[in-house]
Amino acid sequence: MTALAVTTRRHNPDLAEWARRDSWTIGLMVLLALLLGFTKLIQPNYGAFGIQGLGISIMPLAFAAVAQAIVVIAGGIDLSIGSMMALTSVVAATQMEGQSGTFGVAVVAGVLLLGIALGALNGALVVATRVPDIIVTLATSFVWAGLALLVTAAPGGAAAPWLMSLTTGAFLSDWLPKAAIVLVVIVAAIWIPLSRSRLGVSLYAVGSDQLAAFRSGVAIGRTKVIAYAIAGLFGGLAGLSLTASTGIGTPVPGPYTLQSVAAVVLGGVSLAGGRGGVFGPLVAVIVLQLIQNDTTFLGIDPNYALVVQGVILVGVLILGSLLESRRAG
After folding, report:
1. Complete domains list, the chain, with CATH
2. Taking the mean position of all CA atoms in its chain, how far away is CA 170?
3. What does the pLDDT look like over 183-208, one tens digit per residue?
4. How far is CA 204 from CA 59, 70, 177, 198, in A?
5. Which residues pair with 177 in a beta bridge?
6. 276 CB contacts (<8 Å, ≥6 apart)?
7. Helix, strand, coil content of the chain in percent (nearest 5)
8. How far is residue 282's CA from residue 268's CA, in Å, rounded to a whole number?
9. pTM
10. Cβ(297)–Cβ(42) below 8 Å
11. Is residue 304 pLDDT above 90, yes or no?
């Protein structure tokens, strides 16, 4: 046996393990590549400018999907993310309007703290009342939406110029949208240390089996509150990116809550908790946006894009259920 064969045998198990563990994400990236090819086929002029537009359009939903993924990994679900985005967006826009860039930095910091506080309150209510997450966060979604309308009843305000500049244009190359770079850097800076920390292990443990996690010494209540607080941080980032990309604050929640759940499911995060990550949902957000773009390029009623997304999600749920049954068997 040659040295090359021996080396290949040594490394193949690691490669095979990686492929098995991340097979869902690999498949999703293949789907993304196919969709990009299809987009180029139906829209030959789709190039760097289109990629920049894609980066800007996915940014709010991408942050929302990361927020949702963290909560779902910890065994919960957050139906207030869309309303949280609306509230943080209008607070940022109304406070930045007519102010200096330095004051805008303080507003951004305050909005992120507001997002953390809203998320922590969600978690505290879930832990204290022992009411299912879906009920608590549905209730708080109405509270956050009402507060957003109290801040401003109509779209208004303005984003600081430096904030808008973070989401427009390219970085180094026309094919690298500045919005995508900012998104990846922020998510990586928070998620990578978190996932490798004791807290990250606790999030997965609580999502997998609360009883086993409790017996292992994990503080269930505190871990859930922290998970929702981190989700609130990303919810605040989503609201800020919404203000940055539109230039104003919009008090009416968009479809971001349900779309974030869709991205989490398509991204391979188990709704049962304890399995998945944030990279898959990020890729899923791009896939969902490309589907919507392609229906527009083809001149198809945009409502059909929702139908296509729904069919894909049903197929994903069925496939996930089959794979789960095979593992259990």
Report:
1. 49-313 (1.10.3470)
2. 22
3. 999 999 999 999 999 999 999 999 99
4. 26, 9, 32, 10
5. 170
6. 69, 72, 73, 264, 267, 268, 269, 270
7. 75, 5, 20
8. 11
9. 0.90
10. yes
11. no
